[in-house]
Inverse folding.
């Protein structure tokens, strides 16, 4: 369910973000569009090449880093993806609060997919803090609250499970 939500969010963002990119260097939007076609065809290596080409053409646009990070995440190159999202957020800065927020959002999702729940919880908290400080940005604070709650429950279950496993080991060793 969570992965489907991410795919739907990405699909909704693609047209809006590609259109917003049109103000960049000439041809960048076309290259991004070619990358999106490859991404949607699940050719993530091909998409990454196109996004990197767009980045090389117009490195001042946060969107090229954002989409490169999305392709890297699909390739399960988590740390590289996170680096791209951080760069997107840094370049977006205060001039593009919505892109900054999207980079935070997808970084938190990526950390969850990576299995780094503690890191994901921290990233969601950062996203939530950003949402509260930047009300004009298109941000979904309830998503962050729900994800933080779900992660806390999962971490608690994992901790409880460790106790049960230790108890079982202790009982097996004593027989």
């Amino acid at each position: 369910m969570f992965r489907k939500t991410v795919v739907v969010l990405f699909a909704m963002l693609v047209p809006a973000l590609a259109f917003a990119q049109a103000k960049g260097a000439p041809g960048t939007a076309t290259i991004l569009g070619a990358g999106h076609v490859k991404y949607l065809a699940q050719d993530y290596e091909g998409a990454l090449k196109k996004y990197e080409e767009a980045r090389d053409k117009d490195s001042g646009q946060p969107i090229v880093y954002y989409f490169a990070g999305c392709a890297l995440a699909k390739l399960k190159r988590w740390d590289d993806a996170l680096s791209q999202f951080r760069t997107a957020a840094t370049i977006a800065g205060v001039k593009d609060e919505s892109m900054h927020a999207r980079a935070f959002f997808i970084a938190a999702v990526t950390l969850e997919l990576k299995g780094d729940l503690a890191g994901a919880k921290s990233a969601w908290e950062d996203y939530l803090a950003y949402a509260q400080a930047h009300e004009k940005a298109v941000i979904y604070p309830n998503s962050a609250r729900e994800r933080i709650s779900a992660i806390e429950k999962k971490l608690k279950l994992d901790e409880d499970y460790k106790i049960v496993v230790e108890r079982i080991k202790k009982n097996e060793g004593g027989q």
Summary: The chain has a mean pLDDT of 86. The helical segments are 2-21, 28-40, 44-57, 62-74, 78-92, 97-114, 117-133, 141-174. The first helix runs from residue 2 to 21.
